[in-house]
């Protein structure tokens, strides 16, 4: 990273935990595959992943990854070819992901809940030659088939790679099979057959550079047409090493860590902060295929004696609200990380009340691999800030003209560091718009940097509501609404208004027993100035969310427009 020439001080260094360097070694030529190779060598017999009670060691994971590579090589793929993965957190996912990278190919992660239209765009835009898809979602591929350029699909079953336990495989199949719709696909191969095909060949070594592309991580689907963020091996490894440096300051030498991976691995937060980070430290990740099944998730957590978990606000809220979650043994839990969306103070309090550990909020984006900031892991109380910039990361707050603003003044958060993407796939104009003249990535988020070095998010710039010339940030209003004891979830959007330009409209999911509009109006009047008050309240059983749990304000706006 270039030396800063700005006169604005970077105050976060003086607030770093003891032992955390200001910079990591950015000259490292390590690749994501080097992370796996080191784990397979240093922690060969340690469990790398667990699914449905069955564990795979690092040595076994390496072997399976090599088989995936051989299979793709035998299909004729060349270094740099894109391979798509469309599946939730099942055992086959990490083996396939590492296998794709081991061959010098590029991983294209796809949300398995995508519609045929969304799937078609991502596969064709990336030019993916092969798609690995869980059989539960193969019907979507069939629907998209007439428009696809992808050459082959490999169909994975939930029980694949845990076949050593036949009884468990049968239980898994019976549990999930009822969710598999009938499909008919030409040019497909069952994953078990693909592995047998691979076992007949030999691995052809491929030279992989830190400057080679590792992931095409699509982003922007909640605000517009999805774009592929080009993440190089060096970007991902830098972020893993930044997170490791942060954690080691708190936990010292790491051993026998168990991470509950409830967020989907196709999402950049779980991919880096769970899968790859855990491999770097030789821990075990517990793969949760469906985090929306809260009772099953709690049952899985109860068996793990977890030491770490990564959540989003909605998942933390759903867990902390259940009485059976309080019966979990949290004695080994040392780190609870929250990211992906704004963490609300009421949820953070409930989480600490139940688990005894604070919810440590961080911040990042797909374009930054993803972690930019995280709070100190030794914090005792929720701060409301997203933390301090990681080592080798610079955060600059800019106005609309691109000029840097003084400490404490809100503007767009701009980021520079080794974890920042190379650019958007085949979109030079979008790439140019995404960076400042001095090469900072423009996040689209409004925020501040304080004298304490902490970065605070105000809101997404595009979600800001303009009421009679005053800025209203939905996060603030949602935080107030969610703090009401009778409110489970809240979302706020701006709607056109003849008098004020825009007005605030709130969508509420009440807790059991309900809440009245009058109660909420009185609550908000005590805590918000007049122009921030919601004009209208809509009560719902659920709110639209991404599969990670982020509330989709765009869908709420579209719904209002259509009505």
Offer a quick outline of the entry.
Helices cover 31% and strands 23% of the residues. The chain is built from 16 helices and 26 strands.
Shape: globular
> How many DSSP E strands?
26
- Alpha-beta content class: alpha/beta
Strand content: 15-25%
Architecture of the domain at 32-229, according to CATH?
Answer: 3-Layer(aba) Sandwich
CATH names the topology of the domain at 32-229 as Rossmann fold
Adjacency order of strands in the biggest sheet: 2-1-11-10-12-13-14-15-16
Q: Main sheet, how many strands, which sense, barrel?
A: 9 strands, mixed
Rounded to the nearest angstrom, the distance between the terminal CA atoms is: 49 Å
Q: How would you state the average pLDDT, rounded?
A: 91
Helix content: 25-40%
Uncertain residue ranges: 1-5
Explain this structure.
The protein has 16 helices and 26 strands. The strands form 5 sheets. A 9-stranded mixed beta sheet has the order 2-1-11-10-12-13-14-15-16, sandwiched between helices. Helix 1 (32-42) packs parallel to helix 9, helix 4 (116-126) crosses helix 5 (138-144) and helix 11 crosses helix 12. The longest helix has 19 residues, at 233-251. With 563 residues, it is of the alpha/beta class. It starts with 31 loop residues before the first helix and ends with a helix. Helices cover 31% and strands 23% of the residues. Among the domains are: 32-229, Rossmann fold (3-Layer(aba) Sandwich), CATH 3.40.50; 464-562, ANL, C-terminal domain (GMP Synthetase, Chain A, domain 3), CATH 3.30.300.30.
């Amino acid at each position: 990273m270039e030396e800063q020439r700005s006169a604005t001080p970077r105050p976060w260094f003086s607030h770093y935990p003891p032992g955390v360097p200001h910079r990591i070694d950015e000259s490292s030529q390590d690749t994501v595959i080097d992370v796996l190779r080191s784990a397979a060598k240093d922690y060969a017999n340690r469990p790398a992943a667990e699914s449905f009670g069955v564990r795979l060691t690092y040595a076994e994971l390496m072997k399976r990854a090599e088989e995936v590579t051989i299979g793709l090589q035998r299909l004729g793929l060349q270094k740099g070819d894109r391979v798509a993965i469309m599946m939730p957190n099942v055992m086959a996912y990490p083996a396939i992901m590492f296998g794709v990278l081991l061959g010098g190919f590029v991983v294209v992660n796809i949300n398995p809940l995508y519609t045929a239209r969304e799937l078609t765009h991502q596969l064709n835009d990336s030019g993916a030659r092969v798609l690995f898809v869980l059989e539960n979602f193969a019907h979507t591929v069939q629907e998209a088939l007439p428009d696809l350029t992808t050459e082959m699909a490999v169909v994975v079953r939930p029980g694949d790679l845990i076949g050593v336990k036949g009884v468990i495989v049968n239980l898994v199949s019976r549990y999930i099979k009822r969710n598999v719709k009938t499909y008919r696909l030409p040019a497909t191969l069952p994953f078990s057959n693909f592995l047998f095909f691979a076992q007949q060949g030999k691995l052809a070594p491929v030279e992989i550079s830190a400057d080679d592309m590792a992931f095409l991580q699509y982003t922007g689907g909640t605000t517009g047409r999805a774009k592929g963020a080009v993440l190089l091996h060096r970007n991902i490894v830098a972020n893993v090493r930044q997170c490791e440096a942060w954690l080691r300051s708190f936990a010292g030498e790491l051993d026998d860590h168990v991470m509950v991976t409830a967020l989907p691995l196709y999402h950049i937060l779980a991919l880096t902060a769970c899968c790859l980070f855990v491999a770097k430290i030789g821990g075990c990740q517990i793969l949760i295929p469906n985090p929306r099944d809260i009772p099953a998730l709690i049952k899985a957590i109860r068996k793990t004696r977890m030491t770490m978990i990564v959540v989003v606000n909605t998942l933390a809220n759903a867990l902390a609200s259940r009485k059976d979650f309080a019966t979990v043994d949290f004695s080994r839990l040392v780190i609870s990380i929250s990211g992906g969306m704004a963490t609300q103070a009421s949820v953070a309090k409930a989480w600490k009340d139940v688990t005894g550990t604070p919810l440590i909020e961080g911040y990042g984006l797909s374009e930054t691999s993803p972690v930019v900031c995280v709070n100190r892991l030794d914090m005792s109380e929720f701060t409301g800030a997203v933390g301090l910039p990681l080592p080798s990361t610079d955060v600059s707050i800019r106005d609309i003209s691109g000029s840097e603003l003084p400490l404490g003044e809100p503007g767009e958060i701009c980021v520079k560091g080794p974890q920042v993407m190379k650019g958007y796939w085949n979109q030079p104009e979008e790439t140019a718009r995404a960076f400042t003249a001095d090469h900072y990535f423009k996040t689209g988020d409004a925020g501040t940097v304080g004298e304490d070095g902490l970065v605070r998010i105000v809101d997404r710039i595009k979600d800001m509501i303009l009421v009679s010339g005053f800025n209203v940030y939905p996060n603030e209003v949602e935080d107030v609404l969610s703090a009401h004891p009778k409110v489970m979830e809240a979302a706020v959007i701006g709607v056109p208004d003849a008098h004020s330009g825009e007005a605030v409209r709130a969508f509420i999911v009440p807790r059991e027993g309900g809440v009245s509009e009058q109660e909420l109006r009185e609550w908000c009047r005590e805590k918000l100035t007049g122009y921030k008050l919601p004009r209208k309240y809509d009560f719902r059983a659920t709110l639209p969310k991404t599969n990670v749990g982020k509330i989709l304000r765009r869908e709420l706006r579209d719904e209002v427009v259509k009505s």
